[in-house]
Amino acid sequence: MKKMRRDTGQTTVTNFAQHGRMESRIEDNILINEATGPFNAEVIYAIESIQKDLLEMIASHDKWAQIYIFHESALCSLDTVEAIRDYLTKLRGMKKPVATAYVMGKKVEGRSIMASHYRQLYAEATLQYQLFFTEAEAQQWIAAMLEQE
């Protein structure tokens, strides 16, 4: 079986340094992403690289969902927002997650600034999205969403 944990710190996809880091892993039919920001566009390219085979694996489930847990900062530049938009566009041909939960605690830098940007990106991609303060809240919502579908 393939290793089901990937980390952007273990890949280089451009000549520019990545700002931020994300570790992705599969737990049952949920893709869990632990993200530490602030972020630049280069880390989004690295995320695309590390998630490729994970998305193929998790799409084999009848239903799947994803959780992004932010640590320290959720801030990113506008070119990073565009890189996220491009990445979500590239995923359109794949099996969509039932739901995507973002977790940003009250102390995560940029929560109030970035929340609307992330919400808009997922709305444009027609993906079910919700923002939470705690991982427990996100897990509960994800479980309910997986049961509905």
Annotate the secondary structure layout.
Elements: E1 5-7, E2 21-27, E3 30-36, H1 41-58, E4 65-71, H2 78-90, E5 100-104, H3 111-124, E6 129-132, H4 135-148
Parallel strand pairs: 3-4, 4-5, 5-6
Antiparallel strand pairs: 1-2, 2-3
Helix pairs in contact: 1-2, 2-3
Tell me what you see in this structure.
There is one protein chain. With 149 residues, the chain is α/β, with parallel strands linked by helices. It has a single domain (5-148), classed as STAS domain (Transcription Regulator spoIIAA, 2-Layer Sandwich). The protein contains four helices and six strands; from the N terminus they run βββαβαβαβα. The chain has helices at residues 41-58, 78-90, 111-124, 135-148; strands at 5-7, 21-27, 30-36, 65-71, 100-104, 129-132. Strands 1-2-3-4-5-6 form a six-stranded mixed β-sheet, with helices on both faces. Helix 1 (41-58) packs parallel to helix 2 and helix 2 packs parallel to helix 3. The protein is globular. The chain starts with a strand and ends with a helix. The model has no long low-confidence stretch (mean pLDDT 89).
